[in-house]
Amino acid sequence: MLARARAAGVGRIVTIGTDLADSERAVRTAERFGLYATIGIHPHEAKDAPADIAAAFDELRGAAQAPIVAIGETGLDYHYNHSPAEVQRRVLRAQIAYASAAALPVVFHQREAFDDFVAILRELWDRTAMRGIVHCFTGDAAQATTFVEEFGLLLGIGGVLTFKTAAGLRDAVRTVGLAPIVLETDCPYLAPVPYRGKRNEPAFMVESANAVAQLLDRSPDDVAGTTTATARRLFALE
Asked: What CATH number does residue 36 fall under?
């Protein structure tokens, strides 16, 4: 999979943690294969979060031999409600506070919880000092504009952009333009056309780049170069 990614022109990979055990696996994988990692507690897993999230994250960071470049995936998900909403909100607040103190960006997850998510951002987010991305963004133009213009957040765009049903997302991308976009996969989910239904992987990101290029009337190389530079700044990869 990594060889296919390199052959497709993918130069850097950030692998994402979604609970403490998964975050440790992400770090070990990054160490083994020369990748980057994030550590975080996904809203699905919020019910199992430790009482002292900061101490747990400090321990992970202290033992890591690979770069930990962000906190997340964290956020709110009211679609499945695998964790109670009030617990999701508490765990999200704790991770935003940790990221702020550690001067790390945040990888956000938001599904069917826009109002509560924005309320917490308005409470805690300092766009002058913090960086973040709403990963796997599939919202509409109004939501995209709120995230970008009010909070200075980036939008993670992946395979969904190629789906026939994603007219609203395509309108959102047209509205905000290329500057706030980072390409992502959401592996192993949401493979782009023509790979839909298969396990997603980084090499398929070429299709998402091509879709953005066509949508915004830019060249694929321009899209790849611009979004790569944006990702580097977000995660301080240089």
From this structure: 3.20.20.140
pTM over 0.70? The answer is: yes
58-84 confidence digits (pLDDT tens): 999 999 999 999 999 999 999 999 999
What tokens does 175 get? 């509205």
Pairing label, strands 68-77, 132-134: unpaired
Position 128 in a domain: no
Structure tokens at 131: 């960086």
Q: How many domains does the chain have?
A: 2
Sheet bearing 181-183, strands edge to edge: 14-15, 36-39, 68-77, 106-111, 132-134, 154-157, 181-183
41, 45, 74: which is closest to 60 by C-alpha?
41
* The last residue of a domain, from among 80, 112, 144: 112
AA identity, residue 212: V
DSSP letter for 124, please. H
- Distance between alpha carbon 198 and the CA centroid of its chain, in Å? 21
**One domain, residues 101 and 140:** no
Decide: 216 and 183 in contact? Cβ < 8 Å: no
DSSP, collapsed to helix, strand or coil, labels residue 235 as: helix
DSSP state of 188: T
Do residues 108 and 72 lie in contact, with contact meaning Cβ atoms separated by under 8 Å? yes
What residues make up the domain containing 146? Answer: 1-8+135-238
